[in-house]
Every structure is written in structure tokens, then in C-alpha cells.
Write the C-alpha cells for this entry.
Amino acid sequence: MKKRLIVSFSGIDSAGKTTYITMLRKHYENNGIKYKYIWSRGGYTNGFELIKKMTRFILRKKLPQSGSSNKRTEMMNNKKISSTWYIIGMLDLMRLYSITIPIYKLLGYNIILDRYIWDTYVDFKFMFPHKLNKFLWKTLEKIYKKPDISIINYVSAEVSYERSVIKNEPFLETLEKREQRIRIYEELIEKNKWDAVINTETKSIDETWKIIIQKIYMK
């Protein structure tokens, strides 16, 4: 495999992204292929996480920890705080998509992206719906580095919720909110935002992996 590829994995929680990302990482390692794994969900990128850690250190107990909580909801309802959060998150995504990822590719790395721009779009539909047609988001859509292969793992909201309960996820999103997320993902699927849409609810792990690895070696 001589090509340096950017492969992105998208989808709702418990759709199987981690399973196939782990399989791809092992495949690369077993075949001596250089790669970088990058968590690229807006608001949780490494640059933004560093800023949040520094802010928590300075403010001590004044800033809530990550995850759902009444204190965090109350904080994000403050327009100045939420606007600052959004701006920093967007700027770090721009840095990641337009600078960091192209540099890694130039250095000879294959890149595995856990979530990507459209997962952030789904998140921001809930958090900042009025900002998605404004300057920062439009700029991001123009400058982001498009993956060579983009994959969305699809399951129903019910299956997503059941799997999350079994996994005992710490911040369990409600079934109703997952249904809303699925509707947004379906709208994006209709707009052909991904190269491959894989229903991991109906396909086995082996079937899904075969589709993914064929996509990679057909490039």
C-alpha cells in the first residue's frame, strides 16, 4: 500500500466506529504502515482540550468537568461563554483540517480520523444551530481537508441506545435525542457526504471489515 490515505469514520454513538478503527490500526501495524490516529470531533480536538485543561487549572473548581451536568448546561446557556467555546472550537478545527492533517500526510502518514466535519455538524445542530450558516462554519467547509475515504457506520437510534446501555457509557444520551441525531445524519447521507454508508446493525463485523478494507485498497 503505497498511497497515503485519509480515512474517516463517522456515525452515532455505538455504531461500531471504535471496532473498525481498532481493526484498521492493527492492520496498519501488522503491515508496517505508518499512520496517525486523530480524534477530530469539534470541541474535543487536542488543541481545544489543552486550552480547557489550562482554563480548569487556572479557575480550579469554577469550571465543570467534561460530560453532561447541570453546571455545564448552565454554563453553556451563557451566551458569552458558549460563543467563546464555539469560536475556539472552530478555530482549532480549522487548524487541524487545514494545517495538521496535510502536514502529517506530507510526512508520509496514513491518517485515521475518529469523527469528522459532519459529526461536528450534527453536534452543532443541537448546540449552535444559528451559527451553521455563518462565517466560521462556511469557512471551515471551504478549507477542510476532504478524506480520501469517508465511512459512516449506521444503526437505528434504538440499537445505538441499547448498545450504549450494555457498554455502560458514563454520559448516556436519551433515545429521543439519538432519534433527532439519526434524522440529521440521514439528511446528510441523502446529500452524499460519505463515500460508504454501512449498516452495522444488519452486517456482521467480518462483512463490514471487508467493505472497509476493499475501499482502502481500491484507492
